[in-house]
Amino acid sequence: MWQQQLALLYKSQYRKIIAVLVKLFGVHNIQLAEDVAQDAFNKALLKWPNEMPDNPCAWLLTVAKNQAYDVLRKQQTHDQYSMQTIAWQASNTPLARSLDDAFAESQIQDDQLRLIFCVCQCDINIENRIGFALNVLCGLSSAAIARALLLKEETVKKRLYRTKKRLAQSQFELPENHKLNASLEAVHTILYLLFNEGYLSSSEREPFNEMLCADAIGMTKLLLLNDDTFNGETLALLALMQFHFARFNARKDSQGKVVSLDLQQRSLWCKSLIGEGQELLALSLAYQPKMLGRFLIEAQIAQLHCMTADFKHTPWSMIIRLYSMLYQVTGSAHALLNKAIALGYAGQCGEAIGSLENLTNNSEFQQSHALDATLAHLYALKGDRNMALIHAELAKKRGGTILEHQIIRQQLQRLLDGLH
Question: 361 by DSSP, 3-state: which?
Fold first, then answer.
């Protein structure tokens, strides 16, 4: 019992604790902050089997605060901490009182927001940012990140080390007004990628990670609690996440195998989350009526799927138009792949396949199996078994996980057998 509760608390409290510690120690001492945070949870591992606290959250925060007190008191002449901590020391404010203020719940919320922006800085390589976000914001170890991103653990460790060095000069503050929009766009992207890593996990052992999805949703909600980061696209991003998360329980069968959208039992979709998504999307449209952002369009597509009684009656013509708009906004060829799938289900397989001919040399697909997997799907919809299997084999050679290719094969077989 206590192990399960500690695991849940680690996911919900780690980011709070690390945010306060980074504020106290400074971004350049982020490794020290991680060590102190981890030590608090290690103490829980030792203490809780014998005596479970009445308020576990408060217990963890108190332990972390006491650890921070010891570090700052013992090492104040050896390390330079954050400007705020230096100011406390100079003002002769009692350290214990300063830490009580720092660990106040109202302050922790703001600190988490600052930490999110700090981690999602625009000048850090995207592949480094996603791993770093998984580490600092979600508390994943280098081994867990390696499994999630299909990387060697040593590669992850090197990337984390380089990223932490790169961030050493960063300020633990929200960006200035003239930089906020660009920074917020980067934050949106990272939170979207974190959600997708939970929803469409690259890990073969754990194809779904509900906690990562919940983490991304929680951090997006934090953005909406601050006037400076509240905007229509943030609302749309949260709406998109809620629509997808509503379908989470229907995405696997009793054996834990992936269930594709066309076979999902829609009665398992969470109606309350779909309702929340609709409200958020309506707010987004009302807040910035002329906005045409990526997440607004994607949320509208997700809403159409959620509001359709069964797969057969999906409004493909509307989805096709929305994917055309998404391509105009993003310029991403992946929008064209999704549009082609929609065309195929709308009975226009020939047009869909023809629309992808110009993408064979697209740089987005040189190291990706996505184009061939899409063509395999379309040829299967068309009833061309030979071409479907040829592209499925090409997709397998170009990349993707064993699990992804198992799903592709199963779906192709079902389409070719006329069961869709």
Answer: coil
Let me know: does 277 contact 314? Beta carbons within 8 Å. Answer: no
Could you give the CA distance from residue 395 to residue 403 in angstroms, rounded to a whole number?
13
Whichever domain contains 335, its CATH number is: 1.25.40
Query: Could you give the CA distance from residue 207 to residue 40 in angstroms, rounded to a whole number?
Result: 30
User: For the residues of 332-350, what is the DSSP string, one character each?
Assistant: -HHHHHHHHHHHHHTT-HH
The reply to whether 160 and 116 lie within a common domain is yes
8 Å CB contact between 203 and 147:
yes
- Cα distance between the two ends of the chain: 44
The answer to whether residue 175 sits within a structural domain is no
Say how far apart CA 69 and CA 39 lie, in whole Å.
13
- Tens-digit pLDDT profile for residues 286-319: 988 778 899 999 999 999 999 999 999 999 999 9
Query: What's the predicted TM-score (pTM) here?
Result: 0.87
pLDDT by residue (tens digit) across 366-409? 778 899 999 999 999 999 999 999 999 999 888 877 777 888 88
Distance CA 171, CA 84 (A): 11
